[in-house]
Every structure is written in C-alpha cells, then in structure tokens.
Model the fold of this input.
Amino acid sequence: MKNSSIRIGLLFALFLITNEVLSQKSDASEGLALVGARIYPSPNAIPIEEGTVLVRNGKIIAVGSSDRIVVPKYYRIIPCKGMVMTAAFWNCHVHFIETKWNRADTIDAERFNEQMADMLTSHGFAHVFDLAEFDIRQTLRIRNRIKNGDVSGPVIYTAGVPLVPTNGSPFYIAPLTLQEATDAQQAALHVRQQIDSGADGTKLWTGSPTGKAIAYMPIPIVRAIVQEAHRLGKPVFAHPTDNKGLAIALEAGVDILAHTTPDGDRAWSADTIQWMLKVHLSVIPTLKLWKAELMKYGVKDLKDNPFITVARRQVHDFSAAGGNLLFGTDVGYISDYSTEDEYSLLAGSGLDFRKILNMLTTAPAKQFGLSSSTGKIIPGMDADIVLLDGDPAKDILSFDKVFFTFSQGKIIYQRKK
Ligand SMILES: [Zn+2]
Done:
C-alpha cells in the first residue's frame, strides 16, 4: 500500500515534469524573462539586488537572484539592469468623464493607447478604480475594449453612477448634476441596478459642497446603500467633504473614504482616528487634488495653506496610528496626470517609501480581495509589474519614472527611447 502510493506519487511527479517541459515548448513564445533589476518583491521584503523574474501565461513563475534562475531557452529576455522593479500600482480614485473618452468603442486604437498611457499606464497603474461616472456605459466601453485586446490599459473597476444627497450635487460639476438619493429604498435600488449593470462598488457623497452650504446625506439612507452593496459583496466609497461627512460615513459603515477632509480646517481627533480604525475605514488621501483646487481658484500661497496642511496632518496622524491608506489621485477630474505631487505630499506627511509602496500595491489588493493574485512579485501571482528609472527608496519621485508597466504579463506601457 505504502509502496504503491509512493509509486503513484513518483508517476505524478514525472507527469508534472513532462507536462512542464511540453508546455514550455508549446508556450515558448509566451515565456518572458525580466533580467537584472533590483527587485522589491513586496513593501516589507528585503530587495533582491540583481534579480530575474520569469513570466509565463501571465503569471510570475520564478523570482530570485539572477545567478540562481535559469532562463529557459525560448524565453524572450528583457534586460532590466539599472531598473527597479515592484508590483504594478493601483490608482483607487480615477474618472473617465473627460470627453476624449466618449464612445471609447470607436476611438482609434493608437489614440486610445496614447490617452491611456498619458493618464494611467505611463504612471505605473495596472489597476484603477473609477469612482463615479455620469453613465456607467462610458466606463464599461473602455473596460470592454481593453478586455477585447485590440488596445492596452489597466484592469478597470468602476463604482458606476454615484449618489448625492437631495439637492446635493457638488458645485464643482455644475451645471451638470448627479443622481440624488431621496429615500432608503430608492437608494438601495439604484445601487443594485448599477451593480447589475457591471459596477464593482458604489460611491456616495455623505457631505456634498453645493456652493452655498454642505448637504449631508441622512444616516438611514447611507446605511441602506451600505447594506445593499455589502449584501452584493461590493465596497462602498464616500466623499465626505468635512468631519461631519466623515462621521456619517463612520456611523453607517462605509468602507473607504475617497478623500481626506480639509474643509473646515480641522485635523482628525484621536477619538475619530480610533473610530476609523475600529470600523476598518480606509482612506484615499488625494493630497494633490487639494493643491490643484487651490490653484484653480487662484490661491498663491500653497505651501502653508491650511487646506493642504490639515489634509497632510490627517494623513500623518491616521498613518501613524496604523490606519489603512490607499493610493489615489482623482485623475480624470483633474487633468494634470503626473503623480509626482502626490508622492511629494505623502512623503512630506511622514510616509516612507515602504508605506507608499504598500498604498500602491498590497493594501489595495487586500482591500479588494485580490491578495492571492496581485500586489507582490512572488511565484503564482499575476505578472503585474512596473520597472522604474531610479529607486523610490532613495528618491520618492522615482515612483513616477516608469520604463515598463505589465498587466498579467502583457506590456501595457513601454517608455519610448
Ligand atoms: Zn473624484
């Protein structure tokens, strides 16, 4: 009995080896070796100084020091000496509302790729969460086009059409308006319809600046939205505006704050932060957005403006207390796509390179239930990889100096020489 099970085991191992060799031959063209980069396998791992990563069928199959990894004969080699490798990034707050994305199914493929590089893939993003659309079909067309494969882009998740309080469309989108949540039942139905149409989450304004005042969404309506989204297994994002909007989000069980809350110039108290930790509320800082908004309204003194210093203080205090931060910039709403300012402002809030790498990779993967497939450079994971020109451990702005972005083993961005 014992012998036969050993024999079966050996036969099985032999089968695996044979199968491995065969599939290497048949999939030879798909094999890829990234050779020579300094690799940060995860935010907390010790870097591999000169490493090699083997990729096949969109997955990472081997990672290690280049002198230990044998590159199979038929693999395509990409020399990466001098580059720094991390898992590809997430941008958890983007929009596709600019008119250039209209009818994405009909945009010329080359132009589509250029637009996508400009906005997202040249900044290392292989996953994005679209946090509000006027019509969900706008984002679905972009997503489907990428899935169909004639164009390149990140994996796109969408919150679909969001909800605002009654008479609560934010002033900054005027004269456009957003769907209002009038009562709990109607709001829950809206959430269900969006998710049925392809949304991966939902977004609401717990507090919305209407220009004259801040409109708040009643807690029972927010609860109904959260309950319905959670019943369907989807996360809830809230735009809070100020600390009262934050308290509503906390009270109702929202998952992710789409922004910090500089309106009202109040830092987060220790009690508020403890409450945020207790209910596992994650935060997308969007610090660059505050700078962009001040510039839009002609404010000159940006450095010491309380709108920025308060937001930075919130990020600092929340992070120091162990709060979960996710990276996001609100690109698409703001038309300056560079991520440099966000990295500078985060670093200036006391976050080191590993914390920022966590926000970009492992934290969002965990938040959205994808820890076992993406966010790290280890065997078995999707080959979602960026190669940087410089080490962000030494210069934080290196996070925005991208040579290559890979999504599931496919090059979705390559810097032109
Ligand atoms: Zn936004």
